[in-house]
Amino acid sequence: MLIKRFLFLFAACCLSLGAADKPNFIVIMADDMGYGDLSCYGATRVQTPHIDRLAKEGIRFTSGYCSASTCTPTRYSFLTGSYAFRFPNTGIAPPNSPAVIKPGTETIASVLKRAGYKTAVVGKWHLGLGGPDGPDWNG
């Protein structure tokens, strides 16, 4: 329920902005990356200059929590605003698994599209590809 409230508030903020006032934003979600892994948050072992620049010129989150410790349920929860454990087949999706997010499910992308945004996903999906007749993880 907390995630749904967040998505509602986020969508309300987006919808309340006028067309000229809509900020561009990028959400970077990475497996096994923590607060202390980016140089913009003080990490010294790996330098992340491009992400640092985005952080410097934009807004940084300083407190965030994922709803699960593995990729499929975390992505499911982030995109739908629902706790993955409350829905079937939202564990770690095996290769060629059916789509985890059912068609017609409200997602952050659909809310943003209604607000006039264009959305895209780049990189690891890991939410099912539509079954054995669909592409494999590599396309």
Descriptive report:
The protein is mainly alpha-helical and 139 residues long. The protein folds into two domains: 1-30 and 67-139, no CATH class; 32-65, no CATH class. The chain has helices at 2-16, 49-57, 71-80, 108-114. The N and C termini lie far apart (34 Å).
Task: Tell me the radius of gyration.
Answer: 17 Å
Number of helix segments?
Answer: 4
What's the story with the biggest beta sheet?
A: none
The percent of residues in helical segments reads: 25-40%
End-to-end distance? 34 Å
What best-fitting shape do the alpha-carbon axes yield? Answer: globular
Give, in order, the helices and strands. Answer: HHHH
Estimate the strand proportion. Answer: under 5%
Runs with pLDDT <50, length 5+?
Answer: none
Count of distinct structural domains? 2
Judged by helices, strands and strand pairing, the structural class is mainly alpha
The strand count comes to 0
In short:
The protein is an all-alpha fold and 139 residues long. It is 29% helix and 0% strand. The chain has helices at residues 2-16, 49-57, 71-80, 108-114.
Key features?
globular, 139 residues, mainly alpha, single chain
Task: Annotate the secondary structure layout.
Layout: H1 2-16, H2 49-57, H3 71-80, H4 108-114
